[in-house]
Amino acid sequence: MNRLFLLTMFGFALLTSCGKEKSNTDQDFSTPAAAEKTADAESYDPKRGLGKYETVELGASLDKALAEKGLKTAEVKCTSCHKPTDEKLVGPGWKGVTKRRTPQWIMNFITNPDPMIDKDPELQAQLELCMIRMPNQGLTEDEARSILEYMRQNDGVK
Amino acid sequence: MKNKFLKSIFVVTLGCALFVSCKPKDSTDAVEGDAAQKVYVAPGKYDEFYNFVSGGFSGQVSVYGLPSGRLLKVMPVFSEDPQSGYGYSEETKPMLNTSHGYVPWDDQHHLDLSQTNGEVDGRWIFANANNTPRIARIDLKTFRTAEIIELPNCAGNHSSPFITENTEYVVGASRFSVPPDNDNGDVPINTYKKNFKGYLSFVKIGKEGQLDLSFQIVAPGVNFDLSHPGKKESHGWFFFSCYNTEQANTLLEVNASKNDKDFIMAVNWKKAEEYIKAGKGKRIPAKYAHNTWDEKTQSAKSVIMNEVLTLDASELKDICYMIPCPKSPHGCDIDPTGEYIIGSGKLAALIPVFSFTKLKDAIAKKQFDGAYAGIPVVKYEAALYGEVQKPGLGPLHTEFDGKGNAYTTMFVSSEVVKWNIKDLKVLDRKATYYSPGHLMVPGGNTEKPFGKYMVVYNKITKDRFLPTGPELAQSAQLFDISGEKMKLLLDFPTIGEPHYAQGIPADKVRNNGQLKYYDIAANKHPFATKGEKESKVVREGNKVHIYMTCIRSHFAPDNIEGIRVGDEVYFHVTNLEQDWDVPHGFAIKGANNAELLIMPGETLTLKWVPEKKGIFPFYCTDFCSALHQEMQGYVRVSPAGSNVPITYSVGTNLPKE
Ligand SMILES: [Cu+2]
């Protein structure tokens, strides 16, 4: 009886969580794949962040063309709020970001900001300073990667 | 004393209850115990159906969720909308252009969803404008008006915008016959019989939804009221109800009710197409506007067209036939099988049901009762399948559940009546509050109705909601029609005066590629500003173009000087956001205009002609972030002829010392 109750409860819990997941994902009007990945707070890896990027391979030297493309995209989608220096505008300056953060953390954050702001203690602290959640700018994979390359250039990678 | 009074009320109420069919019941009519459960949509859950409801004299279309009755959106179509700046922004103004110039309002009556194989498909919804005759197409990926076409030679475009089973045509017709636009309209009104005509418009719908006024049928001057296309077997035909066959031009309430029978006009549009192919059409001059919204440039353009192809129904004898229909027919509805044509005489005490098979037969055997204005009149009995006896008073509109039943609203006796199409027996009746016009079953005018819910749209609300002065919102009433008897589930208030509505399972719309934002990279607006770096202010004579961006939570530039009194200032504001549901607003003090509401990735333009010198603040009207309040800026306006140079900046606070 007890076991049955437990089983039922377990089954129910599974169902409800699936149900919830479903109600948000069976819409084909596309949440970016990254945003759909959820994980609980305990499993949050502050070095990796939250999103589809496990590791991001960087070249030993700078990919200049890619960095150039990154700057172009950033000028449309990012530099309204971020300066290349260490000065805060709406959000923090970009100087040194590639030294403070892993490439995968950056890629995850810029493509999947909302869930990361909810989980990452440092981002929470940042939010208290800026009072604005970084918008999801709908970056494609290529755009995100090119921005990362531009950030590296900004941090002196040659 | 008091008791006596109560008693007499009781007697009166009882008396009323006995006459259900002629007096509305009291407003607290019993609702079944599980009604609340059936309409409850828990927080975070979605409704099962979209319900698109015409906005009547608001000129808009509203979107509700069913079964909750929650208002989801109001879509501007034929009227200016201060909330979104539709009709105020430079980009949207051409949408409301007509051959009469800019027309900022209309009366929106009916809606029809696009269909594939007789089923709703969730691509577009079409809307009519009654007053200055127009048809609009609304794109259901964006819930925005994508196209508007004006109908020439037409007045009171009421029997519109009904569409054929594969979205081949959308139609319109004159409820108020008038002299054709290019004729001398300066004639005595009492020459109606001689000079007035009723034009039926067939607007072809392209693959991407493009509207093209393909041809018009010239019909006698009567009042064309409503229409519906044939289905399946009767596909290729269209049926229009008409009244005022008396051809009266004054006091129509009396003079247009004299004939015992008016007509449903059956139009063989496939035949009409053949005549056009055979070169039987005649091109006549006619001015009408065709307005289209371009999603890439995010701007509308209006083109004035100059002629239209016409076919004369009295010359081409086999495209139109008149079916006699008792007493001022209003609704004209075709059942899902396409076999039954249901007429509703506003003043008739019965509902005539015609058979398409019998109609075809009667035409083949020439069972005619003479002609009306050159159009053959089919013998009533030859086309009649049968009559629903004593359905109630004032039958108006009929929809279907796909299970062989029809539901008809009774305006005068304030009820909705369920009856069986085969044996024409009344099965159930329920009071509505009050004076119902149209009713809607999702897919109820198609070949595949979703016969679970029905909504009845009422003209008079009286005691249904908290009082709000003399004017009350019209009410809609949701019924469960899944069982044998109809069950009232919910009342909800609506905007404007809703007429017809459409319903569709939610997934057919929300999974059709809904747009969350406009891709800024694809923004081809000629004044788009892609990034703050490109923001600038450019003077060209007395015109000043401001290329402005916005993102949470600032504009760039936000300090602008060098504007002069009398300048034509164009704020071209680009929203740099690429996230769902983050529009920004733009409003400036004293503008004789409205605001802009700019969707993510979009550019919109507000024209402003400052009439005073001074400092004019502008700000974002849409609460976008905690620092939304700070999303503001200033424009300095100097006197005309001043030599303050154009300067603009963002992030530069104090003067340089
Ligand atoms: Cu804002």
TrEMBL record, chain A:
Keyword Iron in record: yes
UniProt region (Disordered), positions on chain: 21-46
InterPro entries noted in UniProt: Cyt_c-like_dom, Cyt_c-like_dom_sf
One Pfam family per UniProt: Cytochrom_C
Biased composition annotated in UniProt, kind: Basic and acidic residues: 37-46
Recorded GO MF terms: electron transfer activity; heme binding; metal ion binding
Keyword hit for Endoplasmic reticulum: no
Keywords from the named record: Heme, Iron, Metal-binding
Residue intervals of the Cytochrome c domain: 65-155
Protein name in UniProt: Cytochrome C
